[in-house]
Write a structure and sequence with these properties.
Elements lengths: L36 H8 L28 H7 E7 L5 E7 L5 E2 L34 H6 L28 E5 L22 E3 L7 E6 L4 E6 L13 E5 L6 E9 L12 E5 H7 L4 E3 L1 E7 L16 E8 L6 E5 L6 H14 L5 E8 L5 E7 L10 E7 L7 H13 L4 H9 E6 L4 H6 L24 H15 L4 E10 L5 E4 L11 H6 L2 H9 L21 H7 L5 E8 L2 E2 L6 E2 L2 H22 L2 H19 L9 H4 L16 H20 L21 H13 L5
Parallel strand pairs: 7-9, 17-18, 17-19, 19-21
Antiparallel strand pairs: 1-2, 2-3, 4-6, 5-8, 6-7, 8-14, 9-13, 10-11, 10-14, 12-13, 15-16, 16-18, 20-21, 22-23
Helix pairs in contact: 6-13, 7-13, 11-13, 14-16
C-alpha cells in the first residue's frame, strides 16, 4: 500500500485514548504494518513511486488501534515533519506534513480511504478569489445558433504553429494519465513523430480531484474519463484536475466522455473555469471563464474502454480552449473549488478575528473517515437564549456543489460582522451552521455521495449513526433543542444546480391534498419572496417549487418540515452558470455567491420584522398572490374567477391584477389551487434528491420521538 492511501481517525492524535475506534467502509478495511526501520525510511524519504514500499505497523496492530502512526511518537517523527504556528489570538496550532508528499494534515483531517490515491498537497486559491472579475457570457439565443464546431464537427487548427501541422487522428490513442498507474512525478510522453507537439501532463490525485484517465487521440485533442463517486458506477458531473506542459495560444480540445446527466447549462452558455499559476502570480488573476465551441451531447462513439459501463448512456462535454502561458500550471474545474482544507482555513481566520462572545466553532461529530464535521454557533451571548429562536444553515451534503460553500462563506462573514443587521440578528437568533455535511465526499472528489456510495440527502428520515453520522447527530441536536422548548425558525440547506439558471428555492407548503390550507400556502412563500426582493438580479421567485414529490420525502427539507415541524424548511439552489433575469445574462462568480449568502441573512432580518407588522404581512401576501397568478397565466385561471382577478382590462402589455385583501387572496388561490399544484408538480429534477441515491431500510422511531412530534404539532405557529 502506498503513501496517501491510508485512513486515520481524529482520535488517533489523542495519546491518552487507548480505545480509539473508527467505522470503516467495507472496501477500506485492512491492516497496515511497517516491515523494518530501513524500509520505513526508504518508503517516506523518496519521491519515486517505484521505490515506495508497503507500510507495515509493528506487531500487526490494526489501523484504528491506539498503537498507530499518530499514537507512536517515534514512528510519527519519521513519517511527518511537524510545524507550529501562532495565530492572532495567541493559540498554537500544530500541523503535520507527510515527508514524501507534503500533504498537510492535522487532528481534524483531511483523512481519506485507503486505496484512494492522494499523492499531492491540496491546491490553495483563496488568496486569488477576491480578485475574480465579473465575466459575462453571451446571450442565449446567439449561443444556441453558433455553439458547436460546425456541421462536420471537425476541429480546425488555424492558429497552430507550422512545426505542429500534424492533424491526423492517432491510429492508436496514447494513454497519458491514469489515476491508479501514473507515477507521482510524471514526465511528458515521448512522441514518435517530430511534427507532434509535446503531450500535456494531467494530474488529479489531490484533495477534491477526480480525473480517472486521459488518452491522447489527436494532435491537440484529449479524451478524458472522470472517476465516478467512490463505490458507485455513476454520479459524474463535477470535474477538477491539473494540466501542465502546454504551449500558449494553441487551441486544445478536450472531451469528457462519461457524464451521466441528460442536459446541462453548458448548452445554455456556461463556460469552463480555469486557474493559471502564472497569471495568478503576475496579474493576481484568479479563477476565470474560458472555452469556446462548447457542446454537451450524448456520447455515441462507444469505443471499448473497461472504465465505461455498457448499460449506461453516457454524455459528452466537448470544449476547446487556449492556455495563456507556455509551461504553465493550470487547473480546470466545473465550479470554483472549495475543499475541506479551505474550510479549515476560513474557520481559523474567523476564529482569529471574531470575538468568542459571538462566534464559536465546535465539532459536531466525526465522519466515517474520521474527518471533523464542524458546527459553528453565532449569537450574542449577552442576550438570554430563552428569548431567541434557532436557525440551521447547512451546505455541501453534495460534495460537487462547491458554490454552496461560497454562499456559506458569505453567511459566516456577514453574520459575524459589525453590520447593524448582523448585530440585530445575533440578538434575536441563534445560528447553528454546519458548513460541510459531507467532508469525506469533498476530500475524495465525489459529486453526490458519501463513502457509503449513497446520497446522504436521501437518508434524512432514518439516518444510521455509523453510516450517516453527520446527519444523525444534526437531527439529534435539533430534537434536543425542541425538547428544551426552543423554536427552530428556519432550516436552509444550500445546494448547486446544473440545469437551471439563477438562485431559487424548493420548499414545502403541504397543500397537496384535496382540502389544502391556503394559509400555509402563503406562509411557506414569505421568506423566498423576500429573497427575491433582496437580490432581484439573482433570485428568481418564479423558479421556486413547493410541491412535495414522493421521491423527495426522505430529503432534508421535507423531513425537517414534516418531522421537526419547521415551517421555513428550504433547499436553496444556486446555478453553476449564472443569472438569466438581468439585462445581459452573466456567470455567477465567487463574489456573487458570497453576496447571496449575505442576502440570506438580510432576508431573515426582514422576515422577523414582517412577522411583527400585520400591515406589511398583508401587503406581502398580496404581492405573493399576484406573482403566483401572473406565473399561472390568464388562460389557466377558471373563467368564473376572471372578473375578480382582472376586473378591468387596461390597454397595457400586462393586465393589472386587482386583489385588495388577504381574504380575496385565499379565495382565489383556493379555487386555482389544482392548476397551481399541477404546474408546481411538473418541475424538472432538482438537486436535493436523486432517485438513484437510495434510501437505506427503515428503522422505526422510538416512542419518545413520536411523543415529541405530537407535542410540536400542537405548538406549530400560524401567522394568521
Amino acid at each position: 500500500m502506498r503513501i496517501g492511501q491510508s485512513i486515520w481517525s481524529r482520535e488517533d492524535f489523542n495519546l491518552n485514548n487507548p480505545t480509539s475506534s473508527l467505522v470503516l467502509s467495507t472496501k477500506a478495511k485492512s491492516l497496515i504494518k511497517f516491515r523494518s526501520d530501513t524500509d520505513l525510511n526508504r518508503s517516506f524519504d523518496t519521491h519515486n513511486d517505484e521505490n515506495e514500499q508497503e507500510i507495515i505497523l509493528p506487531h500487526g496492530h490494526p489501523i484504528n488501534s491506539s498503537k498507530n502512526l499518530f499514537s507512536n511518537l517515534q514512528l510519527r517523527s519519521r513519517i511527518y515533519e511537524q510545524q507550529q504556528f501562532v495565530s492572532k489570538d495567541g493559540t498554537v496550532k500544530t500541523v503535520y506534513y507527510f515527508r514524501a508528499t507534503r500533504i498537510c494534515i492535522d487532528e481534524s483531517g483531511p483523512f481519506w480511504p485507503m486505496a484512494f490515491p492522494i499523492k499531492h498537497p491540496t491546491p490553495s486559491f483563496l488568496f486569488y478569489t477576491r480578485n475574480e472579475k465579473k465575466h459575462r457570457f453571451k446571450e442565449y439565443y446567439y449561443l444556441h445558433d453558433n455553439h458547436f464546431l460546425g456541421k462536420n464537427h471537425q476541429q480546425t487548427f488555424d492558429n497552430q504553429p507550422a512545426m505542429f501541422k500534424y492533424t491526423d487522428v492517432l491510429k492508436h490513442p496514447i494513454l497519458v494519465y491514469d489515476m491508479d498507474k501514473s507515477p507521482r512525478q510524471q514526465q511528458p510522453k515521448a512522441n514518435d513523430n517530430e511534427q507532434m507537439c509535446p503531450s500535456l501532463i494531467f494530474e488529479s490525485r489531490f484533495e477534491g480531484g477526480n480525473l480517472r484517465q486521459v488518452k491522447r487521440v489527436g494532435q491537440f485533442e484529449y479524451e478524458l474519463i472522470l472517476r465516478p463517486d467512490l463505490y458507485t458506477r455513476r454520479h459524474t458531473q463535477w470535474y477538477y484536475f491539473r494540466v501542465q506542459n502546454m504551449i500558449a495560444n494553441i487551441t486544445y480540445r478536450f472531451r469528457i466522455i462519461n457524464l451521466v446527466k441528460k442536459s446541462s447549462l453548458y448548452n445554455e452558455g456556461m463556460q469552463i473555469l480555469l486557474f493559471s499559476d502564472v497569471a495568478g502570480k503576475k496579474e493576481l488573476r484568479g479563477w476565470h471563464r474560458v472555452g469556446h465551441h462548447i457542446n454537451y451531447a450524448e456520447y455515441k462513439q462507444r469505443t471499448y474502454n473497461p472504465l465505461l459501463e455498457r448499460d449506461i448512456n453516457y454524455f459528452e462535454l466537448d470544449f476547446q480552449l487556449e492556455f495563456p502561458h507556455t509551461s504553465d500550471t493550470c487547473y480546470i474545474a466545473h465550479c470554483y473549488p472549495y475543499t475541506f482544507s479551505d474550510l479549515k482555513d476560513d474557520l481559523d481566520y474567523l476564529s482569529s478575528i471574531r470575538s468568542q462572545e459571538i462566534f464559536r466553532r465546535d465539532i459536531l461529530c466525526e465522519s466515517q473517515a474520521g474527518n471533523s464535521c464542524f458546527i459553528v454557533t453565532v449569537t450574542d451571548e449577552s442576550v438570554p437564549i430563552s428569548q431567541k429562536k434557532f436557525v440551521f444553515i447547512t451546505a455541501r451534503i453534495h460534495p460537487g456543489e462547491t458554490n454552496s460553500s461560497y454562499m456559506m462563506r458569505g453567511v459566516l462573514e456577514f453574520i459575524t460582522s459589525d453590520d447593524r443587521v448582523a448585530q440585530k440578528l445575533r440578538s434575536q437568533l441563534v445560528f447553528k451552521i454546519i458548513p460541510m455535511l459531507n467532508p469525506d465526499g469533498v476530500i475524495i472528489g465525489n459529486y453526490r455521495c458519501s463513502l457509503t456510495g449513497k446520497d446522504m440527502n436521501r437518508n434524512f428520515r432514518h439516518p444510521r449513526k455509523q453510516t450517516f453520522p453527520t446527519i444523525y447527530h444534526m437531527k439529534q441536536l435539533m430534537q434536543d433543542l425542541q425538547k428544551e422548548e426552543h423554536e427552530i425558525l428556519a432550516f436552509c440547506d444550500l445546494h448547486g444546480h446544473s440545469r437551471k439558471s439563477n438562485v431559487f428555492a424548493y420548499g414545502c407548503d403541504g397543500c397537496d391534498g384535496p382540502q389544502p390550507n391556503m394559509k400555509n400556502f402563503l406562509n411557506a412563500r414569505i421568506l423566498p419572496y423576500i429573497m427575491s426582493r433582496t437580490a432581484p438580479e439573482m433570485f428568481a421567485f418564479d423558479y421556486c417549487k413547493f410541491h412535495i414529490h414522493r421521491c423527495k420525502e426522505s430529503t432534508g427539507r421535507v423531513v425537517m418540515w414534516k418531522e421537526m415541524l419547521i415551517r421555513n424548511s428550504f433547499t436553496l439552489e444556486a446555478s453553476f452558470a449564472g443569472s438569466s433575469i438581468v439585462e445581459k445574462p452573466c456567470h455567477f462568480n465567487i463574489q456573487d455567491y458570497e453576496k447571496f449568502g449575505q442576502c440570506i441573512c438580510q432576508s431573515l432580518r426582514q422576515y422577523l420584522d414582517i412577522l411583527c407588522d400585520s400591515t406589511r404581512l398583508d401587503s406581502i401576501f398580496l404581492d405573493i398572490t399576484k406573482s403566483v397568478l401572473r406565473k399561472l397565466g390568464k388562460e389557466k385561471i377558471p373563467p368564473a374567477l376572471l372578473p375578480a382577478v382582472y376586473p378591468e382590462e387596461k390597454q397595457t402589455d400586462e393586465p393589472q391584477i386587482s386583489i385588495t385583501s388577504v381574504a380575496s387572496c385565499l379565495q382565489v388561490l383556493s379555487q386555482c389551487h389544482d392548476t397551481i399544484n399541477e404546474q408546481d408538480a411538473s418541475s424538472s429534477s432538482d438537486s436535493d434528491s436523486d432517485p438513484e441515491g437510495g434510501e437505506l431500510p427503515d428503522i422505526p422511531y422510538r416512542k419518545e420521538d413520536q411523543s415529541l412530534k405530537k407535542k410540536l404539532k400542537k405548538k406549530r405557529c400560524i401567522l394568521f
